[in-house]
Amino acid sequence: MSILNVNKINPVGGGSTITIAGIASVTNNISVGNSVTAGSFVGPIEGAVTGNVTGNVTGNVTGDATGLSGNPSINTTGIVTATTFVPTVGQLSHRNIIVNGGMNVAQRGSTSTAQGYHTIDRIYQLYSGTDEAPTFAQADVTSGGAFDAGFRKCLKITNGNQTSGAGAGDRVRFEYRIEAQDLANSGWNYKSTSSYITLSFWVKSSVAQNFYARLYSADGTAQAYTFETGALTANTWTKVTKIIPGNTNIQFDNNTAYGMIMSFAQYAGSNYTDAGNTMNTWAAYSGSSRYPTNTSTWYTTNDATWEFTGLQFEVGSAATPFEHRSYGEELNRCLRYYNKVYDVEGQSGEKPFLLGTYLSGSELATVAQFPKMRAVPSLDVTNGSNKFMIRRNGASDSFDTFTMRYGTTTTAEIYVSSNVSGTAGQCGIIRGADTDVYIAFSAEL
Questions:
Q1: 349: burial class by Cβ within 10 Å (0-12, 13-18, 19+)?
Q2: Which domains does the chain carry?
C-alpha cells in the first residue's frame, strides 16, 4: 500500500488529475483543477474529489457540494460518512430532550405579563425589579435564518419601559426545566469530562449585544454552567451551539422532579452577576454569581424585543439538525405537564363538558380523566360569576367555578358546593356558560 504524506498538493496549471492508490494524508489542502482519486484523505480538501473518502475531514470542502452543514456542499460518487448528520453517540431518533422546543404549543394562551407558566408550554417566565412588566408571547417567525430552518413560532419577549434604569435587583429571564429522569436515562455519561451533551437554539434581539445563560443541576450539590450567545447583530436570527462536557460533581436522580434548569437572561442586575464568573465550565452554584456582568442596553431600551426558538438538547458532541416533530406529537408530550381538558376557545353558547351528580342538595361533583401526568396535578380553572351551569331534570343551576379533590395522575374529582340547589342523586350535563371557560390540570416542574 502506498502512502502519500505531504503538506500541500497544488498542481501547476489547474487541469491535472492526481491518483493515489493508498492513503493521502494532507495537513494543509489539496487544490486540483480536475479531480483527486485516493483511498482516503485526512485534512482540508479543495476542488473535486472522486472515489471514497473514509474517516474525518477537517477544514473546508469547496466545489460542487450540496448537502453538508455550513457553507459547503459535495457531489459524491462513492461513500460518505458524515458524523455531523449521523450521530455516533445516542439514538438516531427522538434525540431532543426538550419538549416543545419549536415553541408551537401554547395551551394557556398567546401572550401574558405574568410570572410562571402562562404562554408557550414548558416555558417559565420570570422577572423582578421592573418598572413595567415585560410581555411574553408566542409569535410568528416570518423570515431569516430560523424561518429557513423550518421554524414558524417563537417565544417573543417585549421589554417594558424601565424608566428608573438598570437596578441591582432587576432581571428578566425565562427558564426551561428538565425532569431528572430524562437526563439520568439520556445516555449522557454526565460524570465524565470526555462525554458531551450539545445545546443549540436560534435567537434574535432588536438590540445588538451579548447575552448570558446558564445550566443549573439541582440534585446533589447544585452545579452551574454559564455560557454566552456571543455578540448578536440587531434584528438578525443567529444559531447558537454549545458543546458541554460532563463533570464528576453533577448528579441527576432517576425521578420526576426537575434535575436541570436552563435559564436564559435578557438582563440580570449586579445582585446576580459577578465579573469573575467563569464561563464554559461547571462550578458550584452561587446565587450572587449566576452570570458575568450584564450589559444593560437591551434592558434600558423601551420595547426592546428578544426572540427565541429551536431549543435542542442532545447527547453527543455535535448539533444535529433540529428534530421537527408534528404538532400532535409535541402536544402529547406537553400534556404530561399541562392538560387543558376543556376549553371553549372563544366559542359562544353553552358547550357540554361532563356528566355531574348531586351528592347532596347543595353539592355537585364530576370526575375528569386525562392522560397520565408527571405527578398528581393541581386544578387550573376559570373563575368568575356563573361561568358554568348544569342542565338537569328540566331545570338548571349556574355556578362560578370548581374545586379539586381526590386527584391521581390520571383522574380528579372536581366539585362545587355553592350556587347549586338540586336533589341528591340527580344527574345532569355540565356546560360552560361563557366564551372564556376552561378546565385544566397542571403538573409542571
A1: exposed
A2: 3-62 (no CATH), 111-334 (2.60.120.260), 338-442 (2.60.40)
